[in-house]
């Protein structure tokens, strides 16, 4: 159910009218000037016809009849419009009636609207526009263009006649948009809004720019958590309650929100993550599932081993290193290999084309300015196009996305393959780099955990052991426990709040890897072992339900290999003077 201004149109009728409304609105706005023109033209035609009839007996009487009919219709319409100011007894009239009109069949006493009344009419149109937005939530550019620009532009034509172009246009646009914004604001904070019973800061109720502003500063997770503490588990459209996760995101959960459509990398060619239709999503997800099946994961291992060795060598060569930057270079090179079978050498050449920065910026912009051009940039880069031209030498991710295995009856259009490739680069590199950096940061900030993990790595991968071979990973519970520390993962803020909720995890802000171990594996000498609540249902760093992370298994293998190899070969520590606030 929706609350809107004006009359609630029944769903069936409303749906049918959908799309026609802007046209109806525009027609209404255009009617006034255009009917006058019709009327002038028609009355002239009548006069011409009458003169012609006098001159010739072969006059087109049908034409004259038609012209009279149109004239009468126009007169009727204008009479109705013009009786409003008469009734209001307004002193100040805009008398712009052309001569032809006053001479024509216009009824005596007909007058035009005053400027004030015209502004009122414009404000009323803005309310109708608000109702349209509220009812159908249009997001497509043509409709937005019509509603936000064309409608006020059309409305301004009458004022222009009396006030000049600049003043007429400025006044109409100001009246229209100020009325629209005021109407939206009042509605959003009113008790009629469907979310009225969910508390939250006033600004958050009024506009999403509130969150955007906070996200730009990189503190969205902290502010959201504070809001949950202040207002409770439901703060204006965000929930911090593990029990609603399945209802929201489970197989029978809600469809993805509208923002995903806008977030979609290319509106016309949406990537997997931007699909809101369940059936379409399931269809497009099939190649991804094949690409990350247990058997297919083996295909990425040679690239992973090569890139992890190169990454650790890069760290070894430098005494002081910006770990987060290097991690981004590493994951970018690896994803490029895994996706296109190679082509990127940013670990060697650094990010000279700015692509790594672009993916990083793009991921950050998900919470700020959601449109993105990165998929096209990535795809149009030499390696994307080159890979499209040649048959695959390895079963890279593109092999599956481009249906080179022939499993799907129909190939996906190249625009969609490009969009999914861009998504793979962003979702597969930035996430893993950030998680890896966070793990290393936490290890360095908590030496006791570092020592414990080092002991486990030394046990399974002694100096002469092959630390690039993931065969022991399943016997290394501490490695997994460390990776599962839910700190700073680049997931949505409510997830961060869920993970940091003391009702889900004891000592939620503490870096306690022990909590992820079975009781028998826990080190009894470790400080402050986690006692109490441990709600794994509330733990969703890779999201949950049908839209969860398809790349989870690849990410886990990647992080485990790089961590074991790093810990076997390197002794990491914070740089002198590093401000560790963990
Ligand atoms: C530690 C690393 C990673 C984390 C924490 C992570 C997290 C997530 C999360 C939370 C989502 C759900 C987004 C949402 O709907 O709100 C997601 C989706 C996705 N992730 Fe990951 N991810 C990681 C690594 C990867 C990797 C390596 C890939 C490989 C390409 C990948 C590919 C994807 C894709 C394609 C989706 C969209 C799935 C869909 O909409 O059906 N991710 N990821």
From TrEMBL:
InterPro entries in alphabetical order? Cyt_P450, Cyt_P450_E_grp-I, Cyt_P450_sf, Cytochrome_P450_monoxygenase
| Cofactor requirement | heme
| GO terms of molecular function | heme binding; iron ion binding; monooxygenase activity; oxidoreductase activity, acting on paired donors, with incorporation or reduction of molecular oxygen
Could you say which residues bind heme here?
A: 549
Keywords for this protein: Heme, Iron, Metal-binding, Monooxygenase, Oxidoreductase
Pathway, per record: Secondary metabolite biosynthesis
> Pfam families in the record, alphabetically?
p450
As for family, the record states:
Belongs to the cytochrome P450 family.
**Which named protein is this?**
Cytochrome P450
Native species: Phanerochaete carnosa (strain HHB-10118-sp)
